[in-house]
Amino acid sequence: MRAVIGGVTVVDSLRASLLLEGGPRTVYYFHRDDVRGGALAPGSRRDPPGPTGEATWWDLTVGGRRIENAMVSYDAPPAEFAALKGHVAFAPNVVEHWLEEDEEVWGHPNDPYHRVDVRPSARRVRVRVGNETIADTRHAVFLFETGHPARYYLPQSDVRMDLLVPTQRSTVCPYKGRASYWTIKLAGREIADAVWGYLDPVPECPRIKGLVCFYPDKVDAIEVDPA
Q1: Which of 3, 19, 129, 179 is the most buried (most CB within 10 A)?
Q2: Which of 2.170.150.40, 1.10.1740.10, 3.10.20.30, 2.30.30.240 would CATH assign to domain 2-105?
Q3: pTM across the whole model
């Protein structure tokens, strides 16, 4: 497992430990000796003690750049978290590139218990905005992801793409890849970033390539036939 910041490999480790904190982000802890590409110094952040004990925060200097409170450690964790002693973890959004072996992992390290299952379906899926049907298909794929509601990815050929305008927004998902977004423009109504899709998903999720998906709370209805 490697962590890269500013083109510098800060961590290169064969002994990373995975902590499942119950939130949306998987956290990897690394032995302090595996932090080789940067210098650590005590940080200013102070948090009240939590389930893993009292946190010690560290500033990280990489290539002359100092990142405040970039890493955290627990010097005296409770017995059930004793394995954390002597290890550090990165704060969210500090690492620019994660690599498992020689392949980049998008966003954050993968949770081995997180599943993404994609299934084609002949059930009719329609999307409405006001009185206008802007998508109608029997060729959707249903995506089932741990901790999320089912999502319906639709072929662009069955979507009124003339009503969708690409935006500059972009997000990354370690399980699907980099998402692109569209705004719906219809009869004077504009719904920002209401549609997303993965134009070039990660190799493990090829079935959603080029399909688009609608936020259910940004359109007036997503209707899925029961059979």
Answers
A1: 3
A2: 2.170.150.40
A3: 0.70
